[in-house]
Amino acid sequence: MKRDMDLIRELMLKLETLPVPTAGMVVVDATKVSVEGYPAEQIDYHLSLLEQARFIHAGGLDFGMSGPGFGPGVGFCSLTWAGHDFLDAMRSPDVWDRTRKAASAAGGFTVDLLVSAAKSYLEARIKGVIGG
User: What sign has the CA pseudo-torsion 88, 93, 95, 98?
Assistant: First the structure.
């Protein structure tokens, strides 16, 4: 399955708003963070990618388990510092659109390059606002 950065961004925006008990976790799967146009399997796969990228603190994966209370998903605790940085860099639809277009024009990207491009664009905007 291909990594879909649009889906990654949408999932991060949704995860940020989830209420999680203090020092607890909530099981998150495609039913809790559905994204229109994406099947459950793709969402669950991308949730696992978020844990692998260390964008979220997760209490473990439940993929492939069966029985009451089990199924695909992650035990979501919180966003990590890197997850917050990613989301803050990509939050603005304008920044996200420009970053995606730059990656497409370059013919490829890594997550680090996407974040770097978004930060560069944001830095230029901030300099314009403060006159630097």
Answer: positive
